[in-house]
Every structure is written in structure tokens, then in C-alpha cells.
Amino acid sequence: MSGSESTKLAELAKRRGFFFPSNGAYGGVAGFYTYGPEGAALKRHLEDAWRDRFTVREGNQEIEAPTIMPEAVFEASGHLEGFDDMLVECAECGESHRADHLVEDDTAVEDAESLSIPEVEELIREHELVCPSCGAALAGEPVEEFNLMFETTIGPGSGQTGYMRPETAQGIFVEFPLLAEYARNQLPFGVTQIGPAYRNEISPRKGVVRVREFTQAELELFVNPETDEPDLSRVADVELALYPIGNQREEGTEYLETTVGAAVEEGVIASEWVAYYLGIAQEWYERIGVDTDRFRFRQHLPGERAHYASDCWDAEAELGGDWIEIAGFAYRGDYDLAKHAEHSGEEFTVFEQYDEPLHAERATVDPDMSYLGPEFGGEAGEIAEALERLAERDRTAFEGETVSVDVEGEPYEIPTEKTGFSVEEVTEAGEHVTPHVVEPSFGVGRTLYTLLVHAYREDEVDDEPRTYLALDPEMAPTTVGVFPLMDRDGLGERARELLAALREAGFEATYDDSGNIGRRYRRQDEVGTPFCVTVDYESLESETVTVRERDSTEQVRVPIDELVAVLGGLRDGDRSFEAIAEEYEHQELSAGTENAAE
Ligand code: GAP
């Protein structure tokens, strides 16, 4: 799709109710979009398909957490400290811009996000970059860190500081202790969430691609890194187009066309879990209608990786000539759970039972507090804790007459006989494990936009230009359009009866009797409705209707009492239209039939 086709799609999206900038009556605010009736239906189908694949079929649990969370959560997660983008403000017009994007747009630098502020300031100076809004020079303007979270106050008065969550993931991590209980403390287990996330983007752009409120579909899989492995055999043969770091750094290098199994064997993908989800995602994207010739997985460059991730790949789609990230797959290690445990003081572990109980020796202390108290006063408690830690770490420290420990930088000497040091025989049934997290994280809006861009087609029918969306029948906002050839002689009544019956059978169906039949087909083509059913005079005689397929515009005549089964098979992908056309009477159309006037 060229740039001009992107513009046409944006126009179609607004005119036909897929999505449009919100709050237009009040002049609008950048970065907020409303999904209209067609877009909301497409989004719902997309979310249902994601839920079916990543929650139901993977055996995971789904939750729904609040979107506003207290400050402490983001102190622990690192977002308060490090969820920043680089901002440069134009002194001339006051417009704010993402400094790293300006550098990437106007120089050969590809991952400016990983550079330091002085390096970005230098690039702006060196390349004499200007403000995209007014053309004023930006050299010398300070580049600053800008935190992307929306802050709010919880409760009246000075209240408590809260933030709109910048990722749905945190709503899962903070509830880990309970979620682990629901999963009967058995690893691995996964928790999913589909819901809104908020980022105060410096410069929202490209329609729904970079917005300030968007929907994420995230899966957090909790695994024991020592023992849990994915079932790679399920995806070993799935073909992938990979763009690893090495290929990105070499000018003119092609993608690596490989399979999940080979990529793991050759060490191209470091984490087996990440590889597993790339395979599952590849199949899913294909199923929902992403054009796999315009799709790849790109490995994050080291400086680009989020603060928590050790290996990360993005799913990228080619949209209007640019490669856009539509999902991220990260191995987050134990970063999230360890941080929440440290900051909250709660247990964020799972007790994993050994196959056989383990017999081991354990060094412990039982300090004589009647000695420590009078001797060290207020420090006695902390000294006792320090002794306990030392015993666990280094039992040889207790071999001499005295033991020395440090408390807040102060050394203390304690007679060994007062520490109650001993080595015991213990039987351990298992151990507390801080699970590692594997995270596939999808942007729903960006995926929806990809489906539209990849489905956009222009052709000619009966010598007239036509625009249509070749959406997958399961994704299309409406499955079937029902028309009477004309609204007279009982055709309208029969068509409305049929519409009610199809809706009753669970089809998303629409009715249209205005304008000529060709125009009605065009209206449905443009919003991607895959099938149209027309009630004509023959319908009244033979209890049959015509079923037209959107992409080929072919028609077949189907008995009304078989219509639900035929349309169901077509929608669910169980039967192809070619198979239906072979089975039923093909409807020959003379030239101009589609556009015939009523
Ligand atoms: N929990 C991990 C996480 O949030 P991310 O890469 O920052 O990772 C995941 O976001 C996905 O969310 C992205 O791949 C993208 O599809 C979507 N996304 C992120 N920021 C967005 C924005 N400002 N507008 C629309 N979608 C966005």
C-alpha cells in the first residue's frame, strides 16, 4: 500500500465508521481515537480471536484489573524512574517533538532511542535538524527526559498519587500471590489481560498507530527457569521471517527465512519460550489475515531493550512503506516479581516440591539476646539478623572466638558462644522459586490497522472502479448483507424474515434495500462484508437465494433451508466458496449485472 492508499484508507476508516479522531466537536485532542460501529466490531472479533488462541487454547487464566494504580506499583516496576522518552521543544512555535524520532527520520541513525541525551543533542546540531511544525532550527535546544505516565489523584483533597497504567502487565504482576494460589501454585501458568493502557506520547502520529490511550492484549507466563520448557514440537516447523541483530547491522542483508526449530537450534532465538510464542503468533497472524509477505520478527538491538528484558523480538508489519511494531515478545526474567517482592514486602514466590525430599545441613544462629541487648542496645535486633544471614552465607565465619558483622557500615564483634551457632540436619520438601516471566504483548489497535491496510484492495467490476476490504470472514465486522432485489411484491418481507433468522442463528447480519443492488454490494465490499444474500423473484418460487462472495463477486444459488449451514461453513473457514460453487448452481451474471439499476 502506497502513501496515497494510506490516505485513502484513513478517509475510508472515518467515512465508514472504523475509527476517527475523538472529541471533534471540541476541536479534538491529539492521540485519542474512537472506534465507530465497524471498527468496534472488528476490534471485538480481533480480541475474541486473541483470547481464543492465547487464553483458551493455551490453557491460561484471564483477569481484568483496574486501569489506575497507586504510585508504589510504578516505583517498584521502574516506570516512575525510567519510562521516559526524549523531548525537544521548539523555541519558535512551542511544539514538542520526540527527539529520537526526529533523528531517526532525518539521519541514517536507526535506533536513536538507545543513545544518550548529549548524543542526541549533538546529532540535532550536526544534522541541523528543524522543527517539523514550523521549520525553525532545533540546534541548541535542550533535550529532556519526559515520563510517559498520566498522573492522577486518587480520592478528594490532596489524596494519593496514582497513575493510569502504561501496560496491562502490572495489573497481573501485583496480583501474583493470589493468582499463583488460583493456579494451585503449579508452574508454569499463564495469566492474560485485554484492556486499555495509557501513555502520554510526546507526538502521537499515524492514526491509531501511536496514540495516548490504546488496548493491549498481554500474556504473562510464569515459569520455573530451571525445569520448565515449552513444547517446541508444536511449532518447530512453523516458518518465520526473522530479522536478527546481525542482519540489521549489515547493510543490505535479507531476512532470515527459517523455521522455529532451526532458529532455536542455531541459537538465533536465545529463549525457547520466546521462540515458542513467535511460532504461535506467526500462525495466529496468518489466520486472522495479516499478509505474511509484509510481516517479520525483528530482534531488539541491545540499547533498545526495555529495562526488564533480556531477549526481545518485535512482530513488525509493513504499513504504507514503514515497518511498524505491532507486538513485543520479551523474556523478562524475575525482574517484575523480585521488584514487587522487594518493594511490598510480600512473597512473590511459588513453593516447588522436589520429586524426592532433600536431606541437607543448615547453619543457623540463636543469638543470646540477654547479652546482645545490654551490649548493643537499639542495634541488637539488626545484629541478630546480620548473624543469621552470615550463618547462611559463610559458616566458616563462626570458627573463631568472635564473629564480626557489619550493620549499616558499622562493624560489630560478637563472642561466638553468644551467637547460638549450630549446624542442623534438615529435610527439605521443596524450595521457594521466584518465577521468570515470558511475555507476548500485543497492541490491538495496531493489529486492527494492519488487518485493514493488508486487506485494502482496488479493482474494477463491470468496468467501474471498486474498493474493497478482503478481510477474513471471521474478522469482518459484518458476516452477511441481506438484500431484497427490490422492496416490493413480497421480496422485502421475505428478506427481512431471512435477516431475522440469520441473526437468530448467531450471524452478524445487516439489511439494505436502498439504491441499486450494485451500489449495495459496493457498500458492503467497502467494509469487508464477505457474503451478500439477495432475495429475488426466483426466491419466492423456489425457496432459494443468491449468495455472493466479496472478492470474486461470484454468485451461487442456495436453498434457503441450507443457508445457515452454508454461511456458517464459509465464515468459520470449514468450506471454501469454490467448494460451495461446485456444489450449488452457479449464478451466471451477464456484464453489468452488478451495477444494474433497480
Ligand atoms: N508489557 C510490555 C509492553 O507494554 P510495549 O512494546 O511497550 O510492551 C506492547 O507495548 C504493544 O503495545 C506494542 O507492540 C504496540 O503494539 C502497542 N503500543 C505501545 N505503545 C502504543 C501506542 N502509543 N499506541 C498504540 N499502540 C501502542
Description:
The protein is of the alpha+beta class and 598 residues long. The chain folds into three domains: 1-66 and 166-349 and 434-463, 2-Layer Sandwich (BirA Bifunctional Protein, domain 2); 356-428, no CATH class; 478-595, Anticodon-binding domain (Rossmann fold, 3-Layer(aba) Sandwich). Helix 13 crosses helix 14. It is elongated. The mean pLDDT is 93. The structure holds glycyl-adenosine-5'-phosphate (GAP). Residues 167, 169, 199, 201, 210-211, 214, 216, 218, 325-328, 439, 441, 443, 445-446 line the site of glycyl-adenosine-5'-phosphate.
Rounded mean pLDDT score = 93
Poorly predicted ranges (pLDDT <50, ≥5 residues)? none
Number of domains: 3
Cα shape: elongated
- By DSSP, the count of extended strands is 29
Percent strand? 25-35%
The secondary-structure class comes to alpha+beta
Distinct compounds present: glycyl-adenosine-5'-phosphate
Fourth-tier CATH superfamily name of the largest domain: Bira Bifunctional Protein, Domain 2
CATH topology of the largest domain: BirA Bifunctional Protein, domain 2
What level of helicity do the residues show?
Answer: 25-40%
Q: What strand order characterises the main sheet?
A: 3-10-11-21-16-15-14-12-13
CATH class annotation of the largest domain: Alpha Beta
**How far apart lie the N and C ends?**
35 Å
The number of helices is: 20
